[in-house]
Write a structure and sequence with these properties.
Helices cover 31% and strands 23% of the residues. It has 158 residues and is α+β, with helices and mostly antiparallel strands. It has one domain: Heat Shock Protein 90 (2-Layer Sandwich). A hairpin with a 3-residue loop joins strand 2 and strand 3.
């Protein structure tokens, strides 16, 4: 399907801008017709991706993060990208679910944001060629009643 609209926002890699990004994606998702719970999932995933870029990409130096929202008829695609350093390849392995038999000493701090993003979104891809680029997709009206349905009948159809 073709992209209907695209919104691009570039912001300083500072924690105080993550809330602004949450407001932007919340407004776009609300306008598209996502449910309250879906919007909350989108906000959490975007916050995690932005937080990772803000915290890890530039090592306390100045930098920018770019948000791109692609609005389609059936989905919202959000890309968070930075041009800072990439994260270690073993971060994703560290984010795996914890087993009951796992020793506390062997648990890693961090990495759970990626696991959370993948749990909340329908599709996630990470590109580390130049900086980090996280693309997240949330499908619209998946497994829901058609929004054009005006009423529900309790009598069998004839």
């Amino acid at each position: 399907m073709s992209n209907i609209e695209q919104t691009v926002m570039t912001f300083p890699a500072k924690p105080e801008y993550v809330g602004v990004v949450r407001l932007v994606v919340s407004g776009i998702a609300n306008r598209m017709g996502y449910t309250y719970d879906e919007i909350e999932d989108i906000k959490i995933a975007v916050s995690e991706a932005c937080g990772n870029a803000v915290q890890h990409a530039y090592d306390d130096q100045e930098g920018e993060v770019k948000l791109t929202c692609g609005v389609y008829t059936d989905r919202l695609e959000m890309t968070i990208e930075d041009s800072g350093k990439t994260f270690a390849d073993d971060v994703k392995r560290q984010a795996a679910p914890v087993e009951e038999t796992t020793e506390i000493e062997s648990l890693h701090e961090g990495g759970l944001g990626l696991f959370l993003i993948e749990a909340l979104m329908d599709d996630v891809s990470i590109n580390k060629d130049s900086g980090v680029k996280v693309t997240m997709t949330k499908l619209l009206n998946r497994d829901e009643v058609d929004q054009s349905a005006s009423k529900i009948s309790t009598t069998p159809s004839q």
